[in-house]
């Protein structure tokens, strides 16, 4: 299978209701996320017309790894549970930033489909198998020691699944990330996310492509303080002090800073702690045979509180998210350039690269759950959620995107 041939996952709950994902092995990229209700279809993620366009339109709906967001360029000593190592962060943004895992991150690599996953327990594999036929796939990648300057060989598996809905909910897209080190006595940072960008109205082709009229809720109480180059200071600012970042069903365009949003939101402590208590981001590797961390995630109706809600202004669609990560980046495609790349024909574009009708600023809402930026460099995280794993630990991260109709 070509890395640009989509793996098609579908879930039909009624003759006129369906969710469909097209996932590329290239970077586990969500090429399309199609919601069909009463015969009307909406592709709710932006992107190029040609799947190969993701090579140049980077970080559009792909995985990001080994490490999401930004790390200062240079050599960094790391230590967890007495095991020491070092990270050499390579430059790929500006003059001081290593972005999204380095020059050739996991977004730009071919993953393989596996039918014999090693990082899910037998109980978890049974639940995955019990999902409706054709609604789930697991992707695998082996990242060698030294890849982009990161220590240790990492085996990673990513479950992508569609889960049936309930009530007005059509269903959910679920992504579960697992990773472990191969070598003994090794430590490495791992902080994964899905860099997917949503526009719930674009398929209507009714006016300019924008999310500025979308309503957004982010249940966060702080945002990360950033340097001019977007590296973190490891300080956090109360949302109450910056009204532009108080998203409580606020229209994205209301009080939006120029040129848009590209900010990390720390979720309310009570919410992130509750999620991590039932779905920790690290577990002892020896517990892998007996764990079941996905039972609640794969059920039609979960108990977890939704921490982000996005609703379209013109469509009747609403998506709501949950995760076990401490926060999220919200990016409004602030640095998008309509002159570069292509826009899907389904979104009113020509589909032709560099034709001047691609996605400009404010055309998408990227929701990227992950632990804080460069968390392993913040001494306050020592022995806490520092994004480091050792050879005797399993990395676990999930995001669930629930699709609903007739949003209020």
UniProtKB/TrEMBL annotation:
<dbReference type="InterPro" id="IPR011013">
    <property type="entry name" value="Gal_mutarotase_sf_dom"/>
</dbReference>
<dbReference type="InterPro" id="IPR014718">
    <property type="entry name" value="GH-type_carb-bd"/>
</dbReference>
<dbReference type="GO" id="GO:0030246">
    <property type="term" value="F:carbohydrate binding"/>
</dbReference>
<dbReference type="GO" id="GO:0033499">
    <property type="term" value="P:galactose catabolic process via UDP-galactose, Leloir pathway"/>
</dbReference>
<dbReference type="InterPro" id="IPR008183">
    <property type="entry name" value="Aldose_1/G6P_1-epimerase"/>
</dbReference>
<dbReference type="Pfam" id="PF01263">
    <property type="entry name" value="Aldose_epim"/>
</dbReference>
<protein>
    <recommendedName>
        <fullName>Galactose mutarotase-like protein</fullName>
    </recommendedName>
</protein>
<dbReference type="GO" id="GO:0006006">
    <property type="term" value="P:glucose metabolic process"/>
</dbReference>
<dbReference type="GO" id="GO:0004034">
    <property type="term" value="F:aldose 1-epimerase activity"/>
</dbReference>
């Amino acid at each position: 299978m070509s890395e640009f041939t989509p793996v098609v996952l579908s879930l039909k709950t009624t003759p006129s209701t369906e969710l469909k994902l097209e996932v590329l092995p290239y970077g586990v990229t969500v090429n399309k996320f199609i919601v069909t209700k009463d015969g009307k279809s909406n592709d709710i993620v932006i992107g190029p017309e040609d799947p190969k366009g993701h090579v140049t339109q980077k970080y559009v709906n792909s995985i990001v790894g080994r490490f999401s967001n930004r790390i200062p360029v240079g050599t960094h000593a790391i230590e967890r549970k007495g095991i020491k190592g070092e990270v050499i962060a390579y430059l790929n943004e500006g003059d001081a930033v290593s972005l999204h895992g380095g020059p050739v991150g996991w977004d730009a690599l071919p993953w393989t489909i596996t039918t014999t996953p090693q990082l899910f327990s037998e109980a978890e594999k049974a639940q995955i198998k019990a999902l409706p036929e054709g609604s789930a796939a697991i992707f695998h990648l082996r990242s060698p020691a030294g890849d982009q300057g990161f220590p240790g060989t990492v085996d990673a598996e990513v479950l992508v699944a569609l889960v049936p809905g309930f009530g007005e909910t059509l269903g959910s897209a679920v992504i579960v990330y697992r990773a472990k080190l191969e070598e003994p006595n090794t430590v490495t940072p791992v902080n994964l996310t899905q860099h997917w960008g949503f526009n719930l109205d674009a398929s209507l082709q009714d006016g300019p492509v924008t999310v500025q009229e979308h309503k957004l809720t982010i249940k966060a109480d702080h945002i990360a303080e950033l340097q001019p180059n977007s590296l973190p200071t490891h300080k956090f600012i109360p949302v109450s002090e910056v009204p532009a970042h108080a998203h409580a069903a606020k229209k994205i365009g209301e009080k939006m800073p120029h040129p848009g949003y590209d900010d990390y939101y720390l979720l309310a402590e009570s919410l992130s702690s509750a999620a991590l208590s039932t779905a920790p981001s690290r577990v002892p590797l020896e517990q892998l045979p007996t764990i079941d961390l996905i039972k609640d995630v794969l059920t039609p109706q979960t108990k977890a509180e939704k921490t982000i809600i996005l609703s379209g202004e013109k469509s009747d669609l609403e998506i709501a998210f949950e995760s076990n990560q401490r926060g999220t980046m919200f990016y409004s495609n602030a640095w998008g350039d309509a002159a570069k790349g292509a826009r899907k024909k389904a979104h009113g574009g020509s589909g032709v690269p560099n034709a001047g009708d691609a996605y400009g600023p404010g055309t998408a809402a990227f929701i990227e759950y992950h632990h804080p930026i460069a968390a392993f460099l913040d001494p306050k995280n020592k022995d806490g959620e520092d994004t480091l794993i050792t050879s005797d630990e399993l990395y676990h991260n999930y995001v669930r995107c629930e699709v609903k109709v007739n949003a209020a």
